[in-house]
Amino acid sequence: MQLGRASAGEPADPVGRARTLDAGVVAWMASVAILYAAATAIRTQAGDFGPDPMMILAKDILTQGRFDLTTITTLNDVVTFNGRHYQAMSPLPVVPYFVFVPFEGLWPFSRWIVSAVVGIAAAWMSLPLARRYGPGGPADWWLATLGAFGTMLFTLSIEGDFYYLAHLESVLLISLALVEWTGRRRPLLLGLLIGLAGLARPTLWIVAVPFGLVLLWEALAAETVIGARFRRAVAAAFAFGLPIAGAVVVTGLFDLVRFGSPLENGYSISDVTDPRLAALRAQGLFALSHVPDNVGLFLFGGIDHVRGWFPFIVPSVQGQSIFLTTPAVLLALGATVRDRTNLVLWASAMLAAIPVFLYYGGGGAWTYGYRYAMDFMPFLLALVAAACRRSFGWFEQGLIALSVLFCSYGVVWAIAK
């Protein structure tokens, strides 16, 4: 893992600017792992240990070659098709569970282990992300702490939920792509990382547009001969697009086997146990009619009520404003669009936000915070780091501290509720 720094607009020199893993980095990584593992261990005492649908599905795929659920653990988002029951989901969340199939004794614990491990890996990426985009010095440690403990990454990692696992996987993969973007910028690797992120959260394939356009522009600008320009651009487009196209095909085949159509992901025909959500979905899985409520929740959603015993503040089951979980995202507004890298980040964040605000599911019901915002959170964190190059003082530190405090409360609430 390279921890070198790049200027905001140019790739880093992977040889001259790379940093080795020093004692401080090792200590920080160990602290992240210990805190995530401890919070998960405490959370397990307030939750079920039965295998979740992904463990059941992983077993059924490897032992019986079938993609339906032989055991149903929930009625929500379950699709009954041709007499079989399927979980509406994207492909990637089931993959880590394959490791546990030969070890039946670990099946009840697999949900916690998978989420904690992927969450820790994603949290670790906060440091190289901060060092690539941030101002350097102590500010990078503040920014890394923001990514690991001041976002919903912390609260989602301890829940052992496969819905949340999809977000953890996408944050990890997009963070790796953003680090690569300030490094060698290899089209094949970038395409692979974005393609895999889409296997967890398919709407993230849309961010391939700004990254791909810049890669094409750079390929064309690198040559002076027209023929060489064309060949270089074609090579870059092929290398970048092939793994993304492959990921789209995998998802299509996954849905074709289950629902008879590569265009049916199951969410539009699944059972929805919440009548309010069912009524919203009747307006369309993605629809403009959902935007006002979603944006309102994202900006102004708050608490349900205050009670007389600990924890005193009861969050709304519909979710909370991003400013009640990660107010430090406000710092991203200081990242100028005159910088090409910042422009790509802003374009990616806004494109990723479009399907989030069009979706009928709000912020992710029964989740602390606005869960679907994790789709564009890595881009915002990189923009926050870039903005902190211009100024980093008590104001920035205060917003980061508030973010860590708010998300730590989310962990407390998850355990205590």
Features:
417 residues; mainly alpha; two-stranded antiparallel ribbon; 15 helices; 4 strands; 54% helix; globular; disordered N terminus
Would you kindly provide a written description of the structure presented here, covering whatever features stand out?
- With 417 residues, the protein is mostly helical.
- It has one domain (23-261, 282-416).
- It has helices at residues 23-44, 53-64, 110-124, 126-133, 138-149, 152-157, 162-181, 187-200, 208-221, 226-259, 275-281, 291-300, 340-358, 377-387, 394-416, and strands at residues 78-81, 84-87, 303-306, 313-315.
- The strands form two sheets. Strands 1-2 form a two-stranded antiparallel ribbon.
- Strand 1 (78-81) and strand 2 (84-87) form a beta hairpin.
- The longest helix is centred in the middle third of the chain and has 34 residues, at 226-259.
- The chain is globular and about 60 Å long.
- The two termini are 38 Å apart.
- Mean pLDDT is 90; it is low at 1-20.
Query: What is the typical, i.e. mean, pLDDT?
Result: 90
Low-confidence sequence ranges: 1-20
Order of helices and strands: HHEEHHHHHHHHHHEEHHH
Biggest beta sheet attributes:
2 strands, antiparallel
Helix and strand content put the structural class at mainly alpha
- The protein's oligomeric status is single chain
DSSP helix fraction: 40-55%
What is the tally of beta strands? Answer: 4
Q: What gross morphology would you assign?
A: globular
N-C termini distance = 38 Å
What is the gist of this entry?
With about 425 residues, the protein is mainly alpha-helical.
